[in-house]
Design a protein that fits this description.
eight-stranded parallel β-barrel, globular, alpha/beta, TIM Barrel
């Protein structure tokens, strides 16, 4: 597909941008981030034309989905594919996730884009699974990601959380996977605020005990662990864990509340990043990290700190529904032509919540065409028979 000579007209629908060689002119191969490794966990674009049901097979708009990955690479960010932000296990089934990984890996190879891909066990049926079944499911997905050329991210497994009887089960299973991995992996600790089914992961509901098991797995296999992604929304715990990691193991913050301070770091080290909030914040996040590249930590904080209010709003409880706000912002910014999500999850947040997300994002200058964003926000409100002022606080029934 040939890319257009310039950007699409700002008010033209559909607003999906074609992807192709010409759209790679500022990709990460030419504008790398030097001081930190930064991934954005990317959302998927649903196909609104598909005749499907909330619990049916995922219907993905592949062109729009891949175009958004090129947008992230264009800013110098890596793409974390088929993760929680992509509605993994919440609309994106394993069949669609596997296809997504293959397609994104091919695009990454074509432009030199940094890519990590989620490895889980979501192909298993919903009934309880044995540890052997869970191991085989992980192995299948690990093999697919390695064959595609992505960096594996060993995600937390709901099935393992249900089947494990204690820390030893985690150490044995993860040790087996790490021994057979052909390249270093990222270990992901996703807290129950993101997925309640993961409570008690690593064999304990006590975070101190769980941390010890997690660290033991890493120290048993340091050469097989590129890094760890910590998604607990607890900055102090992340810093304490980061200081205990082997020197060759990165700490990728997954803390969407405290990322500026964690990435900036302290006298003892700093976190890299693998964040869902960097899906809508690609441009300011990349610009901020380039300030770090030049040694300007104060400038980095000044650039990124103002984005935290938006992040805290999007990730407010119930945190797992943050994806709704992220897809809304992608639509308002013109990255896709509609506000539809897999499984109908566009309805998971209230209209006042979505309106506030628009206001906060607009205040940060995130929208290339603010008038288009405001127009689309009004369209959304009108669909539901409500006219909430886009910028004001008054409410009027339409």
């Amino acid at each position: 597909m040939n890319a257009p000579a310039g950007p699409p007209p700002p008010r033209k629908d559909p607003a999906t941008r074609p992807h192709g060689p010409d759209s790679a002119r500022s990709f990460s191969a030419r504008l790398p981030l030097r001081s930190r490794t930064v991934f954005a966990a990317a959302h998927v674009v649903a196909d609104p034309r598909a005749d499907t049901t909330p619990d049916g097979p995922a219907a993905v708009d592949w062109d729009a989905t891949l175009a958004f990955r090129h947008h992230l690479w264009a800013h110098g960010l890596g793409v974390a594919e088929a993760m929680d932000t992509a509605q993994r296990g919440a609309g994106l089934d394993w069949s669609a996730a596997a296809e997504l990984i293959r397609r994104t890996a091919a695009e990454a190879a074509a432009v030199g884009g940094l890519l990590a891909c989620g490895v889980g066990t979501d192909q298993l049926p919903p009934h309880p699974a044995s540890l052997a079944d869970i191991r085989r499911a992980y192995e299948e997905q690990l093999g697919l990601v390695e064959d595609a050329g992505g960096r594996p991210v060993l995600m937390a497994s709901r099935r393992l959380a249900d089947a494990a009887t204690g820390p030893d089960d985690y150490r044995e299973l993860y040790g087996h996977l790490l021994r057979q991995a052909t390249r270093p992996v990222i270990l992901h600790w996703l807290g129950p605020m993101f997925d309640p089914a993961l409570a008690g992961y690593w064999g304990s509901t006590e975070l101190d005990a769980a941390t010890e098991t997690f660290l033991a797995i890493i120290t048993d296999h340091p050469a097989k662990v590129d890094g760890v992604k910590i998604s607990l929304l607890d900055a102090d715990r992340e810093v304490a864990l980061r200081r205990r990691l082997p020197p060759t193991v990165r700490c990728y913050t997954g803390d969407d509340f405290h990322y500026p301070e964690l990435i900036a770091g302290d006298d003892h080290g700093a976190s890299d990043a693998l964040l869902g909030i960097f899906d809508p914040l690609a441009a300011p996040a990349a610009a901020a990290v380039r300030l770090l590249d030049s040694g300007d930590t104060a400038g980095f904080r000044a650039a990124l700190d103002p984005t935290v209010a938006l992040a805290r709003h999007l990730f407010r409880a119930p945190t797992r529904h943050y994806k709704t706000g992220i897809v809304l912002l992608a639509w308002l910014a013109g990255h896709q032509s509609h506000f539809t999500m897999l499984g109908g999850l566009q309805s998971a947040r209230s209209l006042p919540h979505l309106r506030r997300a628009h206001q906060l994002a607009d205040g940060l200058g995130l929208f290339p065409d603010p008038e288009l964003a405001a127009h689309r926000m009004r369209q959304l409100l009108a669909v539901y028979g409500t006219e909430l002022a886009v910028y004001g606080t008054e409410t009027k029934d339409a």
